[in-house]
Amino acid sequence: MEFKSLNNIESSFRQIRLFGIVFVCMCCAVMCYSVWKAYGFAELQREKIYVLDQGKSLMLALSQDLSQNRPVEAREHTRRFHELFFSLSPDKSAIEENIRRALFLADRSAYTRYRDLAEQGYYNRIISGNINQRVEIDSMACNFNVYPYEVMTYARQLIVREKSITERSLVTKGRLLNSNRSDNNPHGFILEAFQVIENQDLRVTDR
């Protein structure tokens, strides 16, 4: 009878140990699953942004991965630079302000282009001739497979005089470098190696 009792105690101990191991494994599995779900929930919540609407109510906005917007921002950066650099009015202060803002978006190559035009009297002729100039972007080709990103811009330049409108083709190229964002450079790019490839008259229309 004593040996039988010992055998029962030993088998009971083995069963308790087995149950204990199974219980610990289940606890670890539940803990890992809870941590994984909590991490996923936290990531999901980070994608949500709540915006206070005039101090009255909260509106839900969704954030996006920054890299998803870079092609759009690159094209908008290039478009904005061309609009500032090539859209001119017969006002010296307005021209200088546009050029100043454009130069925040590009490197020294854009300043070199501006200096050359100024030395040739280009801006003085715009002021004295009461000429308005604006640019219309037709298309842009950006290569985002190689950094710095090469960009080609195809546009039309409209030179509006008192009695005529001259339409010119404008083709430029450059490279986009990532940069810090600021009030003067909200898209975080710098246009380097800026060059004007083509800029010639297409047609002249009487007003």
Automatic annotation (TrEMBL):
Query: Where are its TM segments located?
Result: 16-36
- For whether the record's keyword set contains Transmembrane helix, the answer is yes
Q: Does the keyword Transmembrane apply?
A: yes
**Protein keywords:** Membrane, Transmembrane, Transmembrane helix
Q: What InterPro entries is this protein classified in?
A: Conjug_transposon_TraK (IPR022276)
> What is the official name of this protein in its record?
Conjugative transposon protein TraK
